[in-house]
C-alpha cells in the first residue's frame, strides 16, 4: 500500500452520497463511490472543515447491495447521479432514513415516516445543462462531481428520452451561436407542447443568432426559445405557438425556465400525500394558503378542497397562475409576495384552516416559526432539503405540534436528493391550550 492510500471501512452514507469512514486519528472521511459495509482502499484528498475527501481506488470487500452502474457517464464522474452503484431498494431505504433523521433531529424521534415513493428512471422533464465552448468543441451536460468540468452527455438514464434526443441538435446549434463565447447554460422544460428552451450565454445575441434560433425552433419542433445574458432577464428569441403544460387538469402557460416538479410521477406523489393530509371537510370557511405557490402545481389540486390564497414572489409565475386559475374558474387568488423578506404574520395566518408550505432549497425558517406560533390547525410542509426540513421543523416541536404523516418522494433517482411531504398537526389535549397562551 502506497503512502497516499489508506484501507478504510465504510460505515454509512453521507448527505452527498459519499461513503462515510473514519481515519485512525478520528477524522471523518468521505469516500466517493463507496457503500456501507465495504472495505476499500482509498486515495486520500485534502482535508476540509468537515473531514477528509477520498476516492475509492479498490473495493476490497464489496457490499451485497453494489450493482453495475447503468449509465456509462457515471464512471466519468458525472455529477448528475451519486449512487447509481447502489441497489434501488437500498437507495430508497437510505432516503427514507434521511427524512426520519431530519425529523428526529428537529424533536420528532417517533415521526411516522412512510416508505419512499420512487419515481421511475427516464422520466425527468426538466434539465439545467452547463455549456462550455473550446473553439468548435461544445461540452453540453452536467458538471462532474465536485468540479466545474462539464461531462459532455451522449445519453442519460434519468432524463426523459425526448430531452436526450434533443442534445445532438442543440450541440450543433451552440457551435453556430456567436453569443456563446466560452460558457453558458441551457434549461430544458418538457411541456405538453414539447421541449421549451431557455439559453443563457456570456455574449450578446446578434441578429444572425436570432435567425439561427428561429430556424432551429422550426426545424426541431420547439414552440419557444428564450434567451438571457448570464443572470439577466429572459426574453423570447423565437416563438412558433403557445408553450403550455397541464397541472392537475389545468392548462398553464409557464414563463421560460419556470420551475416544474422534476417528473409527472413525482408531482403526482407530492399531490397525493398533500391531499391525504387534509381532512375531507375543512374547518371554518375552508380557506387554504399555498406559500411559495410557483405556477400553481399545488394550488390547483388544493382548490378542490377549499378556497386557495396562493403567495409567490416571482411575478411571471404569479401571472401564469392567475391567468390559468381565471380560465379554469377555480377559487384561487394569487398574490405576489416575497415570503423570504415578508413572511405571513401570525395575524395574517389566522383565517386559514390549513397552510401548505413548499419553500425553495434553503427552506423558510422565519415563516415556519410564525406558523408554529399561529392558530392554524394543520401545516403541510413540502421539503426538498432534509437539512432545511430539520431546521424548520424545530419550532413546531418546541410548540408541541405532532407529525401526523411524512412521505419521502424520490424523484431525483440515483442522486442524493430526497423530497418529503410532512403534515404537522396540533397536539390534542392540554398542550394545545398551553400553545395558545404563548
Automatic annotation (TrEMBL):
<comment type="similarity">
    <text>Belongs to the class I-like SAM-binding methyltransferase superfamily. RNA M5U methyltransferase family.</text>
</comment>
<keyword id="KW-0489">Methyltransferase</keyword>
<dbReference type="GO" id="GO:0070475">
    <property type="term" value="P:rRNA base methylation"/>
</dbReference>
<keyword id="KW-0411">Iron-sulfur</keyword>
<keyword id="KW-0004">4Fe-4S</keyword>
<keyword id="KW-0808">Transferase</keyword>
<dbReference type="InterPro" id="IPR029063">
    <property type="entry name" value="SAM-dependent_MTases_sf"/>
</dbReference>
<feature type="binding site">
    <location>
        <position position="261"/>
    </location>
    <ligand>
        <name>S-adenosyl-L-methionine</name>
    </ligand>
</feature>
<keyword id="KW-0408">Iron</keyword>
<feature type="binding site">
    <location>
        <position position="312"/>
    </location>
    <ligand>
        <name>S-adenosyl-L-methionine</name>
    </ligand>
</feature>
<dbReference type="InterPro" id="IPR012340">
    <property type="entry name" value="NA-bd_OB-fold"/>
</dbReference>
<keyword id="KW-0949">S-adenosyl-L-methionine</keyword>
<feature type="binding site">
    <location>
        <position position="358"/>
    </location>
    <ligand>
        <name>S-adenosyl-L-methionine</name>
    </ligand>
</feature>
<protein>
    <submittedName>
        <fullName>Class I SAM-dependent RNA methyltransferase</fullName>
    </submittedName>
</protein>
<dbReference type="GO" id="GO:0051539">
    <property type="term" value="F:4 iron, 4 sulfur cluster binding"/>
</dbReference>
<dbReference type="Pfam" id="PF05958">
    <property type="entry name" value="tRNA_U5-meth_tr"/>
</dbReference>
<keyword id="KW-0479">Metal-binding</keyword>
<dbReference type="InterPro" id="IPR010280">
    <property type="entry name" value="U5_MeTrfase_fam"/>
</dbReference>
<feature type="active site" description="Nucleophile">
    <location>
        <position position="384"/>
    </location>
</feature>
<dbReference type="GO" id="GO:0070041">
    <property type="term" value="F:rRNA (uridine-C5-)-methyltransferase activity"/>
</dbReference>
